[in-house]
């Protein structure tokens, strides 16, 4: 039996990263050590646990059942240590030059980031924001702490993530002032008009849309289907600004109200409430448990929440 005094507890860090990355090279990069050092760490873990830890399969390196059974306990141990140590570390927003990496949909970036940047200029003028799109990263990147926070509307989330709802948002219709729909603005007129569809949730590269697959079209089309109707979608896009600009070309853009209101002072456009009920959506911020107790990260999360609530 191994005695705790004879065990290098750094091996728990190695084990945690190896099980998350499932790749010796990536694990070494995550810990900023050489690949031979990481390989040696894996060798020592195998000797300590009398288990191969990772085995090569046709799907790449996969953890053994013994390793999988240890994954959550090891994380809890490391989180507890992190929580114990972090309060002793100081964080000064006024002097920090930290880079905060944020995954945000263009809806979130357009509606929240300008206000957040204003708050940062007052409280933390040397902070830099690195804003990425949902297609740039994966849940794995967030889980590993490579991205500080992700802000979007998420259908499903891994249970390990921390999350905070930032706001609820309804929907508005944006269209040009000469759109024929305005002459008879009701549900029948809405259904006769041509529309631009826009949505992007979650992570990763999207796939082509099927106009007949209502369940995958999202909130607006599901609300219409619930009352037995379907709109005429002329263009599909994943970019809110594209959709809002296409409203000038005669299409109707039914989008979250905070996005539509960015254009409320545009003399060429009109913002109207939809002629049917659409359930509200929420904007959520998520982050890795690895960053939960980081002093700078706590400060930044609180600033995002305050900006979303009062900004």
Would you kindly provide a written description of the structure presented here, covering whatever features stand out?
This protein is an alpha/beta fold. It folds into 3 domains: 4-88, Winged helix-like DNA-binding domain superfamily/Winged helix DNA-binding domain (Arc Repressor Mutant, subunit A, Orthogonal Bundle); 99-168 and 283-310, 3-Layer(aba) Sandwich (D-Maltodextrin-Binding Protein, domain 2), CATH 3.40.190.10; 171-279, Periplasmic binding protein-like II (D-Maltodextrin-Binding Protein, domain 2). Helices cover 40% and strands 21% of the residues. The protein has 12 helices and 12 strands. A 5-stranded mixed β-sheet has the order 4-3-5-12-6, with helices on one face. It has a 5-stranded mixed β-sheet with strand order 9-8-10-7-11. It has a two-stranded antiparallel sheet with strand order 1-2. Helix 5 (106-123) packs across helix 12. The termini are far apart.
In round numbers, the mean pLDDT is 87
Order of helices and strands: HHHEEHEHEHEEEHEHHEHEHEEH
Radius of gyration: 24 Å
Say how many strands there are. 12
**What general outline do the C-alpha atoms trace?**
elongated
Helix share bin: 25-40%
Number of contiguous helices: 12
What structural class do helix, strand and pairing data support?
alpha/beta
The total domain count is 3
Query: Can you name the CATH architecture of the largest domain?
Result: 3-Layer(aba) Sandwich
The largest sheet, given as strand count, sense and whether it forms a barrel, is: 5 strands, mixed
Q: Give the full name of the CATH homologous superfamily of the largest domain.
A: Periplasmic binding protein-like II
Q: Per CATH, what is the topology of the largest domain?
A: D-Maltodextrin-Binding Protein, domain 2
CATH class division of the largest domain: Alpha Beta
Adjacency order of strands in the biggest sheet: 4-3-5-12-6
Enumerate the spans where pLDDT stays under 50 for 5 or more consecutive residues.
none
Strand content: 15-25%
Instruction: Determine the N-to-C terminus distance.
Output: 58 Å
